[in-house]
Amino acid sequence: MNTFMNTFMKKKRFALITGIMSIFLLTACNNDDSSNTSNESEKAATAWDKIKEEGSITVATSGTLFPTSYRDENSDELTGFEVEVVREVAKRLELDIEFKELGFDEMLTSVKTGQVDMAANDIEMNEDRLENFIFSTPIKHSFGTAVVRKGDLSGIKTLEDLKGKKAAGASTSVYMELARQYGAEEVTYDNAPNEVYLRDVGIGRTDVILNDYYLQTLAVAAFPDLNITIHPDIKYSPSKIGFAINKENTELEENVNQVIDEMLEDGTIAEISAKFFNGADVTQVVDIK
Question: Above 50 in pLDDT, residue 27?
Answer without folding.
Answer: no
